């Protein structure tokens, strides 16, 4: 698997996820990430109806291409219409599912145009929850062919759930999975999938390490207001960390990286200060006794 580094930058927040981010700020986020040593950047057509890819491409322009690792996704294409409500300031383009072979190739071509790149390093099938067979036989097959031809270096699937990913692990030959929110210090429902990935040599990119904000001091879990029982569990985790003089967000960033299947933790930032904080949290010294207590 391609070297990703311990931390990667997810670009959904830069595309206005739930609140607008202006273009200079988006560029400054990528600039600060670069200055702090981050070289892996994940994006997708769906993020801001193409805004994330376009902004990332602009921010990376002039960087040494051999130092950058970029992943994007196929399975959701764009057409004239209304962007999904969660994307503040997105252009008038709606996303629609199409996991066919030809649509995957078309999607990747459009992504390269928005990014201003001649290739991406990692191509992922995006959220094929209700489209497994079509995605397996169509989009994934197209990406695997591109891998064989050397057009992309690695292929895989990105999802928020583990059952379909386990099917891909058993029935196809992915290099990696992007697993969002299912292997965190709070939500460990991805344990069986990660064991399978470790056995099969599939690298895991751990996204959603803060479970959409709850583990970083927010009140949302999986992009909705957290139920009280979940919030209570987070308060308990925070109290455990406090006993060891450790911030819960540091444990949240570092927890996924302790699993042998996990190659990288992906963080989403909307300001340069958030990038700095996440880099600090990733290297915050945490004692072994804390992990034993959290276990």
Major sheet size, sense and barrel closure:
8 strands, parallel, barrel
Query: What's the count of strands?
Result: 12
Please state the overall shape, judged from the principal axes of the Cα atoms.
Answer: globular
Helix proportion range: 25-40%
Q: Order the strands across the largest sheet as they lie in space.
A: 1-2-3-6-7-8-9-12
Residue runs with pLDDT of under 50 for 5 or more positions:
none
Radius of gyration: 18 Å
**Which class do the helix and strand fractions yield?**
alpha/beta
Order of helices and strands: EHEHEEEHEHEHEHEEEHHEHH
- Spatial separation of the terminal alpha carbons: 29 Å
What percentage of amino acids are in beta strands? 15-25%
Task: Give the count of helical stretches.
Answer: 10
Mean pLDDT: 97
Concise overview:
The chain is an alpha/beta fold and 295 residues long. The chain has helices spanning 23-35, 51-60, 101-115, 132-148, 163-171, 191-200, 228-243, 248-254, 272-282, 288-294; strands at residues 7-10, 40-42, 69-74, 76-80, 93-97, 122-126, 154-159, 176-180, 203-207, 220-221, 224-225, 262-268. The chain contains ten helices and twelve strands.
Task: Outline the fold blueprint.
Elements: E1 7-10, H1 23-35, E2 40-42, H2 51-60, E3 69-74, E4 76-80, E5 93-97, H3 101-115, E6 122-126, H4 132-148, E7 154-159, H5 163-171, E8 176-180, H6 191-200, E9 203-207, E10 220-221, E11 224-225, H7 228-243, H8 248-254, E12 262-268, H9 272-282, H10 288-294
Parallel strand pairs: 1-2, 1-12, 2-3, 3-6, 6-7, 7-8, 8-9, 9-12
Antiparallel strand pairs: 4-5, 10-11
């Amino acid at each position: 698997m391609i070297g990703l580094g311990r931390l990667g930058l997810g670009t959904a927040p830069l595309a206005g996820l739930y609140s607008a981010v202006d273009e200079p700020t988006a560029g400054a986020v990528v600039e600060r990430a670069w200055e702090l040593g981050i070289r892996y950047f994940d994006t997708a057509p769906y993020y801001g109806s193409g805004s994330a890819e376009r902004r990332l491409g602009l921010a990376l322009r002039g960087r040494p291409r051999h130092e950058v690792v970029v992943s994007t996704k196929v399975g959701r294409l764009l057409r004239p219409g209304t962007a999904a409500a969660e994307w503040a300031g997105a252009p008038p383009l709606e996303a629609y599912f199409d996991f066919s072979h030809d649509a995957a190739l078309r999607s990747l071509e459009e992504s390269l145009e928005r990014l201003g790149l001649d290739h991406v390093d990692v191509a992922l099938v995006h959220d094929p929850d209700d489209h497994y067979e079509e995605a397996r036989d169509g989009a994934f097959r197209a990406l695997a062919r591109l891998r064989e031809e050397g057009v992309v270096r690695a292929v895989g699937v990105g999802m928020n759930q583990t059952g379909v990913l386990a099917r891909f692990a058993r029935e196809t030959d992915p290099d990696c999975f992007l697993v969002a929110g299912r292997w965190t210090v709070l939500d460990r429902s991805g344990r069986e999938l990660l064991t399978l990935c470790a056995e099969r040599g599939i690298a895991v990119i751990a996204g959603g390490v803060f479970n959409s904000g709850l583990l970083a001091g927010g009140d949302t879990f999986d992009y909705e207001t957290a139920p009280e029982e979940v919030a209570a569990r987070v308060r308990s985790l925070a109290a455990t960390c406090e006993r060891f003089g450790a911030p819960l967000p540091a444990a949240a960033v570092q927890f996924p990286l302790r699993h042998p299947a996990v190659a990288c933790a992906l963080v989403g930032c909307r300001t340069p200060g958030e990038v700095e904080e996440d880099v600090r949290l990733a290297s915050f010294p945490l004692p072994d006794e804390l992990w034993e207590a959290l276990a």
